[in-house]
Known about the structure:
The chain is mostly helical. It has helices at about 5-20, 25-40, 45-65, 70-85, 95-110, 125-150, 165-190, 195-205, 210-235, 240-260, 265-280, 285-320, and strands spanning about 110-115, 120. The relative contact order is 0.13.
Amino acid sequence: MTARRIALALVLVAPAVGLLLSPWRPDGTLVYLGMLPAGLGLLVDRRAALTASLLTPASMLAATALRDLPLGAALFMLVLGAAVGLSAAVGWHGIGSLVGPLAAFALLGTPLVALPSGTVSAVSSPAAVATMTGLVAFGGLWTTFVGGVLARNVRGTGPRPVPRPASAYFGLTLGILAGLITYTVDDWTDARNRWWLLLTVFVMIQPYFTGTLRRAGSRVVDVLAGTVLAAVVAHTLDELPVVLVLVALALTGCAVRALLRSPFWVVPLFLTPAVVLLTSGGEDVLVAANVEHAVFIVAASLATVPILVMGRRIMAVKAPNTS
């Protein structure tokens, strides 16, 4: 990597790192989360990254308005899941696999923002919602423009477009699952990490359903390993929050490298502990969070396997040459 690229990379991560190492750490977490879909979009092209940087905060904003409306929330996630599936026709479903979970985070999770009055829930007031939306949008736009320069001559490695019939089945499956899980989990539990159910669904299900069952197994193993790693790191560095943040950022860098050069199963092994460390709080909260993550990941995997098997068989009949 040239000195110019190193300088650009430092500029790219500077806002998130600066906030994460300051008393406004919750704001840094939101900037960091906003950077993820846009960064994946850059693997496709700048237009995809720009779309992701705008769609992510818009989806999270819409989700906050539906938190007290279970049916509306379920319909919203159904539509969003279907849209992610249909976007596979142009190869943008990889971006959607991050936009969907972040909308679920705003809908079912407990995002925080740091305001002049202190750290509060991101859905506690219009000012808090606006702050959350603005920070996520900033992270995405910053990544799009600065990261776009950094990745100018990097060959894109994003998902390939799939035929429209395959994307239609993909969207139908993903939309129905996302809607049903959202409606069910609203009554089932009020755990702060219940949004991981939807994260698992968006990550596991793929067009053609090829390899999806393998992903279900690897997803369980990788996330459990990742959450254990997060707990170990949090226990070791609980009194050193600055180092904790730096470790989370280093893990994110490893996840990006794995996304470009390694099999899929390597990515969540690094990205999971990074997200857990930045969104779950201190060591005591992390212990409970790890248990919740394990339960939700396994539950989502078990719920989707029968539908995945059915979808795989349908696609084998409809498009045998793509299986």
